[in-house]
Amino acid sequence: MNLQRSAFEQLSEPVRKWIWQQKWPSLRDVQNKAIPAIMAGGDVVISAKTAAGKTEAALLPLLTRIKNREDLGNGFSILYVSPLKALINNQFLRLEALCEGSDVILNKWHGDVSADAKARARKRPSGIVLITPESLEALLVRRGSEIKFLFSSLDAVVIDELHAFIGSERGMQLSSILDRIEMATGRDRIDRIGLSATLGDMGLAAEALRPGKGEAVQLVHGLDEGNGIKLQIRGYLLGGEPEDGQEGNEELQELDPEEEEQKGDESEAFGVPKRLADDLFRFLRGDSNLLFAGSRQKVEIYADRLRRMCDDAHLPNEFFPHHGSLSKGEREDVEVRLRDDPRPTTAVATTTLELGIDIGDVHSVAQIGPGYSVASLRQRLGRSGRRAGNPAILRIFVIEPGDTKGAHPMDRLNLDLIQSIAMVEKMKAGWCEPPAEAGLHLSTLIHQVLAVILQTGGIRPAAAWKMLCERGPFKTVDKVLFADLLRCMGSPQNKFIEQSPDGLLMIGEMGERETESHEFYPVFATDREYRILNEAKVLGTYPLTSPVAAGETIIFGGRRWKILAIDDDARVITVKPTRGGKPPYFSGAGGNIHDCVVEEMRRILLSDTAYQYLDKTATALLAEARRAFAEFGLAERSVIQFADGALIFPWVGTKKLQTLSLALLSRNFEASHFGQAIDVQQCNMAGVNAALEKMSNGDVPDARTVAGRLAKPNMAKFDHLLTPDLMALVTLRERLDVPALQDVARRVMQRVATG
């Protein structure tokens, strides 16, 4: 009788010996499933909770495959791609003993690795190379003639933190690079292994791993139960204490693992209530923690406030900022202190510590506000509770303005709190945002055209299209659109490429300036800040992280401003004061909220469900929000009168909300979207309802007209090269959802009709 060998028995002797040395009682669930899948060959997506052993699930069988091969030849055997240099450094330390025991060379390759070490690896390429997409791009561009020598023996590519790449510029760049390696080495396919802790749709993740052939990718989902979760959402009033003066329920609510799977204080001026600062100090002091505070500015505000509280208590400082603007040394000092130093340490961070940088097992995770996504919430939660018997601990601290006299209706709905509850409920149900569907990514395609020309020394347009679009990841770009893009790149204004007499694409005058810089290899744009001017007076700077349009209203410095013009080249937004009543409190959390989260928010406001993980203040704020929801009649209608205009609550995600707002702008309404609503000023209800009724019946503005309302945002690195027509295509495909307009308007009007 032939019995199938266990996953452990399929591994090579050196790998099994290493496992014995680690004194593992058994393989984890994800490892038992992944080992036979990878040993069989082919593309695999591995998804499991943070710290479930995904790295070993991939590398144990891959090391075995290397030892079993008789035709290793020259070249690296495994390419391990990671989004961060710090992750590579962590993985190098983690894998050294395993690779040494298997007699496999482990190479580290990124910007901080010495040129001598890279030269040695290039001269005798072997074993595993841990590398970032940018360093891999630089290797292909600078050493195009060596690609076959370096990678012809490649057995597999491992992509760590796959979710960080999907739908992004870096993801498209990486996918293109891997296709270019396959073509340069004459290989039809090299196995790809994607690792991720947060994947809302495994099918879309498979398609992102192998564009056009996602159905052939094997899916492995680990079901390790973990140690359970304890969480609490705590509420705070911006203007002061709750009326009863009580601090609220101190108990963390424990979640069943199976359910989880399926005004005087200085800080008030910066939006930090005194009671919140006191609670952060009380809960976090004395342990290792992560506090996700949001923007870099907020990170500095909270870190400074907590440091001064340590000084006032005559205690050594335990609170340290961690964000991308800090030097590499300062960030690493915080990481090392968390991982190796017994002293209590709390890192106050942006998103920089979401991914799997090794900082040891932190006691708890804290977060200001609802955050950006359920996927992010799950990722952050996974940094706590890694030790056996210790549950993950999460506290979400939510600030609301309170139901004060003359408050904006959106403030009375306490939407940051409602969003926080919605995200927790979706997380408990086992849901997270699906990966974004592929867009045009024309900016990244421009980058890849330049990279391919440098790699090959010159390439014909048809060959470039076949490499990057037909076979590569830019499958939504046909030959006609590709030709338009090449003409755009080679225009007299841009001069990024030119064509030789024999038809080869070459680097143009401005393209040479761009590609000679080390800044060429990253495909993503750096943060762009715009000065806000009112009558030549600079009000401050505004990060343009999402498209804005002339005619929209923004909230800045606690006031409403109407955008008059946007000068993208000068990075200036010209505004004038606008009326419309008191503006809502705006936390500035940013990020695109998914439709499912907003739908859950409405369900929460409609229901009378109690949530045991809320403290007393949060419970009271939820009750106030439900009372306001009922008072405004939002259970029956989605449009209410406010000040000299109207508020529209479509209860859809950010992309659809912004599209509806732009559609109203194109119909000459003064419309702006904030949070989950659209504020239409200086109009009457009948006019708003009539416009929405027309859209619900199919009379929607032309897509190009809607896209044209946006300023040319230059969000991606090479957007500034695109013609208005090409920019409109990108905007419609990636940043708006015009096809959904009729359905969104219909749902709004159905509630109006029943109201």
Q: What do you see in this structure?
A:
It is built from 27 helices and 25 strands. The chain has 755 residues and is α/β, with parallel strands linked by helices. The chain has a seven-stranded parallel sheet with strand order 3-4-2-5-6-1-7, sandwiched between helices. Strand 19 (553-556) and strand 20 form a beta hairpin. Helix 2 (29-39) runs parallel beside helix 3 (54-68) and helix 8 (169-184) runs parallel beside helix 17 (442-456).
End-to-end Cα distance, whole Å, is 70 Å
Order of neighbouring strands in the sheet with most strands: 3-4-2-5-6-1-7
Radius of gyration: 27 Å
Low-confidence stretches: 242-246, 257-267
Q: Return the average pLDDT rounded to an integer.
A: 87
Number of strand elements: 25
The description of the largest β-sheet is: 7 strands, parallel
Number of helical elements: 27
Oligomer designation: single chain
Our estimate of the beta-strand percent is 15-25%
Outline, from the CA principal axes?
Answer: globular
Give the fraction of residues assigned to helices: 25-40%
Q: Structural class, judged by helices and strands?
A: alpha/beta
Please name the defining characteristics of this protein:
single chain, about 750 residues, alpha/beta, 27 helices
